[in-house]
Amino acid sequence: MKQYSLFVNGQWVPAASGRTFTTRNPADLREAVAEYASGGSEDAQAAFEAARLAFPKWSSSTPIGRGRVLSKASQLLEGRKAELAELLTREEGKTLAEATGEVQRAVDIFRFFGGLSYTVGGQTIPHDLPGNLLLTKREAVGVAALITPWNFPVAIPAWKLAPALLAGNTVVLKPASQAPALAVELARVLAEAGLPAGVLNVVTGEGRSFGAAVASHSSVKAVSFTGSYSVGHGLYQALAPRMVRTQLEMGGKNPTIVLADADLDLAVNLVARAGFGLTGQACTATSRVIVDQSVVEAFTEKLVAKAKSWKVGPGLTAGIDIGAVVSESQLKGNLEYVAIAESEGARIVSGGNRLLDGDLVHGLFMEPTVIDHVRPTMRIAQEEVFGPVIAVISVHGFDEALTVANGLEVGLSASLVTRDFKRALEYVDRIEAGVVKVNQISTGLALQAPFGGVKQSSTDTFREQGAGALEFYTRTKTVYLDYSV
Ligand code: NAD
Questions:
Q1: pLDDT tens, 241-293?
Q2: With contact defined as beta carbons under 8 Å apart, do 171 and 121 qualify?
Q3: 283 in catalytic set
Q4: Of 80, 136, 145, 149, the residue nearest 110 (C-alpha)
Q5: Are 89 and 99 in contact (CB under 8 A)?
Q6: For atom 40 of ligand 1, which residue has the closest CA?
Q7: What pLDDT is stored for residue 393 in this prediction?
Q8: How far away, in angstroms, is 143 Cα from ligand 1 center?
Q9: Catalytic residue, candidates 109, 173, 283, 390
Q10: Mutation to probe ligand 1, out of 48, 231, 237 (largest number of atoms < 8 A from CB)
Q11: Ligand 1 centroid to residue 384 C-alpha, Å
C-alpha cells in the first residue's frame, strides 16, 4: 500500500491531527491502494500561508520561466505514464485504456500551457492623443484554491493547475478523497520539474473543513471548483461575503438527440460510448437519449444489443469495456435510480443490476443499463445518475426533442445525430449547453478549446481549458503612459 502525506511548503508532512484515511480498489475491495493524511482546517490554513508567502517571487518571475517548469513536468509525467495509469485504474476503477488516455491528457495539457507561455501578455490599444501609450498587463490574482472531483483524478487537476501556475498564481489543491493519488503524484512531478517550495500545496482530506478554511482565509483570491451542484452551490454562498473570484463547473444531464433520418448504427455507437464508457462517470456522459418515435424501437433494440455485448470487469484486465463503479455509495445511488425509474413506470430493458459473478463479487460492478418508456417528468430523466445508465425518451420530431433537451436547469454537453445539415445548424443555435456536438460522442473534449456549462452546470463566467483558461487566473491592469510631456 502506498503512503502519502500532505504537501505543504515543499515538505511532505502528516496532518496536524495525525489522522489518516485509506482508499480501496473498487474492482477488488480487499485491496487497499493508498493511505493519506487526513488534512483539516489547520492544515489548509498552513497551506494557504505557504502559498501566500511564495506568491511575490513566483508571480514576479517570467511566464516563459514558469512555462519551462510546465513543459518539464509534461516530460516527467510522460515518462511515468504506464505506472500512473495503473495507479489511477486501481484507485478510481476506470479501464486501463481510459486511464492511460487520461494521463496522456495531463501530459498534453502541461505541454500546451508550457508552449503558451511564449504568448502570455497584454494588449496595446491606440490612444486618442499622440505621444501616449495605452496598454494592458495581465497579472496573477493571488492564492488560488483548486477543488477537484474523483472522476478525472489527473486531467481535472491538470487543467486547473497548468493555467493557474502559468499565470503566476500560487495554489492549494484539494483532490477528492475517493481518488487522490494522481493529484499528489502531480505535485511530486511538478516539484521535480523545478516548481519552488510553497507554489503548489496539496491538502488531502475532508471537503467540508477545507471549504470552510477557503471561505475564511483572506489570502485566497480565486477558487476553482469542479464537482456536484449541491457542494458547489454551498461553496458559492460561503465565498460570497468575501466576493472571491469563483469558478464552479458542476453536473449535467446530457442529452443525445437521435432524429428520424439518423444513421442508427452510428447513433447507437455514439450513445453507448458516451453513456457506458468511463462507467458513465463523466460529467459529459449521455444519460438521456431523446429519440424520434419513428425510430425509437429500432434504436432501443440496437442499443440493448450493444449493452449486452460490452464486458464489465476489473479495469486492469485486458478486453474489459466497463470498469468498476468508484464507491459503494455511488453504486447504491445508481441502483436506487433504476428502482425509482421502474416505480415511476419506466421499463428496464437491459441491465439494472449489480454484477456478483465469480470474482466480481469482491468489487463494485454494474451492468450497463438501458431504460425506456421514460417520460421527461420522471426523476431518471431529470437527475444526474453518474453511472452506466441510459434513459430513452421518445418524442415527435425535432422541436419536441429540443424542448425536452432544454427542459432542465442544467446544460453541459449535448449531442445530435442527424444527416440533415440545416437541422444540425438550427440545433447549434437553439440548444442550451456549453458544449454542442453533432454526430459526435457527448464526452471527449479538445484541450485547446474552451469548456464549461450553462445554467446550473456552471457559474458560466469564465471557461476552463484552451488559452482562455488564463482569464480566470489573471486580472487586467490598464496602463496609460504619456511620453509627450
Ligand atoms: P463532490 O461535489 O462531492 O466533490 C467535489 C470536491 O469537493 C471534492 O474534492 C470534495 O472533497 C470537495 N468538497 C466536498 N464538500 C465540500 C465543501 N463543503 N467545501 C469545499 N469542497 C468540498 O463531487 P464528486 O462526487 O467528487 O464528483 C462528481 C460530480 O462532479 C458530478 O456531479 C459531476 O457531474 C461533476 N463533474 C463536473 C465536471 C465539469 O467539468 N462540469 C467534471 C467532472 C465532474
A1: 999 999 999 999 999 999 999 999 999 999 999 999 999 999 999 999 999 99
A2: no
A3: yes
A4: 80
A5: yes
A6: 249
A7: 98
A8: 20
A9: 283
A10: 231
A11: 13
CA 482 to CA 129: how far, in whole Å?
A: 9
Query: DSSP per residue over 368-400, as a string?
Result: -EEEES--TTSGGGTS---SSEEEEEEESHHHH
Q: How far is CA 244 from the centre of its chain?
A: 21
Domains, the chain, ranges and CATH?
Answer: 2-250+458-481 (3.40.605.10), 254-438 (3.40.309.10)
Where are the extended beta strands (E) located within 189-296?
A: 200-202, 220-226, 245-249, 254-258, 286-292
Query: Does this model's pTM top 0.90?
Result: yes
Ligand 1 neighbourhood includes 283 CB (under 6 angstroms): yes
pLDDT 10s digits, 365-411: 999 999 999 999 999 999 999 999 999 999 999 999 999 999 999 99
User: Is 227 a pocket residue for ligand 1 (Cβ < 6 Å)?
Assistant: yes
Q: For ligand 1, what atom is nearest to the CA of residue 206?
A: 11
SS3 assignment, position 240:
helix
C-alpha 166 – ligand 1 centre gap (Å): 24
- For ligand 1, atom 9, name the residue with the nearest CA: 176
β partners of residue 147: 174, 225
Task: Please report the atom of ligand 1 found closest to the CA of residue 229.
Answer: 32
Task: Determine if ligand 1 sits within 6 Å of the CB of residue 102.
Answer: no
Above pLDDT 70, what percent of the chain?
100
When pLDDT is cut at 50, 70 and 90, the band that residue 437 belongs to is: very high
Ligand 1: does its nearest atom lie under 6 Å from the Cβ of 176?
Answer: yes
Phi, psi of 215, rounded to the nearest 5 degrees? -65, -30
pLDDT at 351: 98
The response to whether residue 220 sits with its C-beta less than 6 Å from ligand 1 reads no
CA of 44 relative to ligand 1 center, distance in Å: 18
Q: Is 361 helix (H, G, I), strand (E, B) or coil?
A: helix
Angle at which helices 155-166 and 63-79 cross, to 10°: 160
Helix (H, G, I), strand (E, B) or coil at 307: helix
Greatest Cα-to-Cα distance within the chain, rounded to the nearest angstrom: 85
**Cα dihedral sign, 369-432-175-238:** negative
Q: Is the CB of 280 under 6 A from ligand 1?
A: no
Q: Does residue 459 sit in helix, strand or coil?
A: coil
Phi, psi for 148 (deg, rounded to 5): -125, 155
